[in-house]
Amino acid sequence: AVPDKEAERKEAAxxxxxxxxxxxxxxxxxxxxxxxxGEVMTVLNKNDPDWWFVRRDGGEEGYVPSGWVH
Length: 70
Hints:
mainly beta, about 10% helix, globular, 1 helix, four-stranded antiparallel sheet
């Protein structure tokens, strides 16, 4: 039998977004998102172990080196 996706959705626990904090600042013209040391961002994707896709509070999204955030 095909699972009832609607029932699964109702029973699933709410997803709590994962956040990260910038350990370093990037103010250069690098190819990745500019960040400030101590800035808190929402992690959207960690599929690449070297680059995480994040969203800043203002809505700007981009990649940051995974070693630069915690």
